[in-house]
Design a protein that fits this description.
Elements (H helix, E strand, L loop, with lengths): L2 E2 L9 E10 L2 E4 L1 E2 L13 E5 L2 E11 L2 E6 L8 E6 L1 H25 L3 E5 L5 E5 L6 H16 L4 E7 H4 L18 E7 L3 E4 L14 E8 L5 E7 L1
Parallel strand pairs: 1-4
Antiparallel strand pairs: 2-3, 2-8, 3-7, 5-6, 5-8, 6-7, 9-10, 10-15, 11-12, 12-13, 14-15
Helix pairs in contact: 1-2
Length: 233
């Protein structure tokens, strides 16, 4: 199993690893700071350097429990390698993900809405909420409150709790589907004095890194389902 070192250090930009498996352009490492696509968050990209040759990492995915790094070409061997994260992309995704947590908490506290779907992206992000009514004035108010939280510069921290403890606290997830299946230790991302959520993604260290959260638009996606788009600046 690949050690997922991004879980405990989202700010690690470079790291050394060993190639354990090669399948054409796909490689498995003994440890990785590359985030594999999932949970609505895009995968990291970057480079892997092996024997003075540089390979671009185009995408990263989990397949049947293994983390595969897709390279731009074949040729890498079982070896020690040096890996570099595309930091500009990673940090933008971290900001987006933390912004999504802040918004989802505001929506939940103000209306009881839960997340029914989401897709974080570099230019704009969407979140689907279980909202019965579409009220643009209220949505604008939720965004204003989210930006007030950003400005308070609250710190974030990551820790783990046993699943049986997490299952006692329904507020730990803002997802309509609840906690992820088959995980014994639940990773918690906490925004001090504001929010605690079960989450497997990458986040900033403090809310002021998020920047300004801009409401783009909202759509009716069927009964009790509203899609909200936002961007950062």
């Amino acid at each position: 199993m690949t050690e997922l070192i991004y879980l405990n250090d989202s700010y690690l930009k470079e790291f050394d690893a060993k190639v354990l498996k090669v399948e054409g352009k796909l490689v498995v490492l003994d440890k990785t700071a590359f985030y594999p696509q999932g949970g609505g968050q895009l995968s990291d990209t970057g480079e892997i350097i092996s024997n003075n040759s540089r390979y671009k990492v185009l995408s990263v995915k989990k397949i049947q429990g293994e983390v595969f790094h897709e390279l731009d070409r074949e040729g890498i061997k079982i070896s020690d390698v040096h890996c570099i994260i595309d930091w500009q992309r990673r940090h933008k995704m971290m900001r987006m993900h933390t912004a999504a947590h802040i918004l989802s908490t505001i929506f939940n506290k103000e209306s009881g809405a839960l997340i029914t779907g989401n897709q974080l992206d570099l230019e704009k992000t969407r979140i689907d909420f279980s909202l019965e009514n579409f009220d643009r004035e209220k949505i604008n108010d939720y965004f204003a409150k989210a930006n007030e939280i950003v400005k308070t510069n609250l710190p974030l921290k990551v820790y783990y709790i046993p699943r049986h403890e997490a299952e006692k606290d329904h507020s730990l997830t803002k997802l309509a589907k609840g906690l992820p299946e088959g995980i014994a230790e639940i990773r918690i991302v906490e925004i001090k004095s504001f929010d605690i959520q079960a989450d497997g993604g990458t986040h900033v260290k403090s809310t002021n890194e998020v920047g300004n959260i801009i409401f783009i638009s909202a759509e009716n996606k069927g009964k009790d389902n509203r899609r909200v788009y936002f961007r950062l600046e």
